[in-house]
Amino acid sequence: MDLLLSLPIVSYFAGPMLTSWSGSMNLLFFYMTWMTLVLSHSPLKIELVGTLAARIVFWLVPSLFFLIFDTLLPSLAESIKLYGSSSLPRRDAAFLLRQVLLAIFNLALSTGVQAGISVGAGTFLRRPLFKTSTALPLPWQIAKHILMLYTAREILTYYIHRRILHSRGRVARLHRSYAHARKNAAPYALMVYTDHPLALLLNRTLPVYLPAMAIQPHLLTYFLFTILTTLEETLSMSGYSIVPGIIMGGIAKRTSTHYASGGRGNFGAWGLLDWASGTSVGKDVIEDIHDEAEKHQIKERGQKAASDTGSIVQDSIDGLKKGRKSRKKNSDA
Fold this sequence. Notes:
Layout: H1 2-5, H2 8-18, H3 23-40, H4 43-72, H5 74-79, H6 93-125, H7 139-165, H8 170-179, H9 197-215, H10 219-236, H11 246-260, H12 272-277, H13 285-332
Helix pairs in contact: 2-3, 4-6, 4-10, 6-9, 7-9, 7-10, 11-13
């Protein structure tokens, strides 16, 4: 617990909410926390606890909240769910408990596999897999490594999903029985980790961890990548039609279409390889971006029109007040 609370990422995000420090003070506090963490704990322990904390905070907690919302307020949830009521979780306490336990088991399994790979790689390389120094990575290094990690993850996700999980083999049958048991329905966020354990490792763990093994970025960069991908998976698997953002809204819709169609397409995380390979189902990534951009432009134009209307009304009221004051002065004179 002490390691979890001392994670610099937690301190960095919680600092502005709990204090009125400036950006420089927050950065200094972040660096001091990270330096203390590196000097007092092993790199493997920091890696595993940090990764687990990111998945608990950005997937497990939100997914349980969404699950409670969907089951306790089904009429309200239905109105914002893609594919309507068919996308709601089963209101069966025993079934939902099994789903939660399976998700927690798969999360523990994923963390255990990561630990085994890290120990093996560290023994082979005779050093930690990720750079765990007190020096912070430079911004351009973070951006470069994040771009490389996302590119490799998209390629691995697409081809593993298409060629293995939706083929005719045993793993594909297990994936269909666990992940695609519901018909004509969008997923819900807990389903990120309720696949068959083998399919989950292939679909969720390896596409994130294998590129990181190859690139070996700074551990903070890996933490950031883990947070971004975990948050993306949580939102894209939520099944909600109100997921914000031009990019993220399209990802959520394509993910829901993948599940509702029984896995006929939309195999990639971002949809770029689906668009290039012709495996998109429904609208492809280009059409989704165009539609979402139009929605945002409409909202902005509406807000601008409302603001302009308000300004006109206010100017009219001010003009009337000035006219009354001037008439009153003339009458007194």
